[in-house]
Design brief:
289 residues, three-stranded mixed beta sheet, seven-stranded mixed beta sheet, Rossmann fold, single chain, 7 helices, 20% strand, 5-formyltetrahydrofolate cyclo-ligase, 2 domains, FTHF_cligase, alpha/beta
């Protein structure tokens, strides 16, 4: 699906270049440089640069290899974290989220259910607070709506369903908790894509992140596909776009430019690490005021 997206973008570029009415400012060519794909304006002369499908494949393959190498490196470092260190960072990150104004003001949240074997930042305390309607001090709060993910297939297809209790969850074949499409009474659970109210906040997992908002996932493309679809739904319904917040251990934050990306990779608005919130987008900066 990622390859298709980049190939489709290239086709659009070539169509623009072949159009006699296209202005020079609208003419682009794609190239891969310094481990990332970028778009450059063409000079306004008679020369044209074209990219073949083979060149696109080579570029995608190079990026895929760089991502695989970085994932392997970070996963090895995560496995080296002591239980005590992980627990300390898990607590710090979750407390920061629970105390954040953007979390307290959110009415509808999409959040992942952490998996210990995947070395993901723990979200159990956050999910419990949402489901129990309590804040950090245990005070009752207005109920938030919670959506959690369910993997549908191996083609980057993931859905997020509303749950009201941890009893709505059961382990899948990878021992990751997820909701069934229907509840115990046989009623269809609400899918976030069909929700009548907007989602304010997405809490996202990942393997690595940087301070410009790049996110390296696990390679399946599930979150990138779902987030893009939801952003399109929000735009169609004229809703505010949700705040995309990644939860990250200290060692998962990379130097800028280290994480390779493709045009289909979704950037996050902010990162929460044990040291605090790293706001990235204008929306995050406003939310952190």
């Amino acid at each position: 699906m990622r390859k298709y997206g980049l190939i489709q973008k290239t086709k659009e570029v070539l169509m623009i270049q072949n159009c006699p009415f296209a202005s020079s400012a609208a003419q682009f060519y794609l190239s891969s440089r310094s481990s990332r794909s970028v778009i450059h304006p063409l000079p306004g002369d008679a020369h044209r640069s074209f990219i073949t499908m083979n060149e696109v494949d080579v570029s995608l393959d190079a990026i895929a290899k760089q991502k695989k190498s970085l994932r392997s490196k970070v996963r090895k470092e995560l496995k080296g974290m002591s239980i005590a260190q992980r627990s300390q960072e898990d607590t710090a990150i979750q407390n920061i989220v629970l105390e954040a104004s953007w979390f307290k003001s959110s009415q509808s949240v999409c959040a992942y259910i952490s998996c210990d074997s995947l070395r993901e930042v723990n979200t159990s305390k956050i999910l419990s607070a949402i489901l129990c309607n309590t804040d950090e001090e245990g005070q009752k709060q207005k109920r938030k709506k919670l959506y959690v993910p369910r993997i549908e297939d191996r083609n980057s297809h993931m859905r997020m369903f509303n749950i009201s209790s941890t009893s709505d969850l059961s382990p899948n074949s990878m021992n990751i908790l997820e909701p069934a499409p229907v509840d115990s009474d046989g009623n269809q659970r609400e899918d976030v894509m069909q929700a009548t109210d907007p989602v304010d906040l997405f809490l996202l997992p990942g393997v690595a992140f940087d301070r410009s908002g790049r996110r390296l996932g696990r390679g399946g493309g599930y979150y990138d596909v779902l987030l893009k679809k939801y952003q399109e739904v929000a735009a169609e319904r004229k809703w505010n776009q949700p705040l995309l917040v990644a939860l990250s251990y200290s060692l998962q934050i990379m130097d800028e430019g280290v994480i390779p990306v493709t045009p289909n990779d979704i950037h996050v608005d902010a990162i929460v690490s044990p040291a605090g919130v790293i706001p990235i987008s204008h929306a995050a900066l406003r939310g952190c005021d």
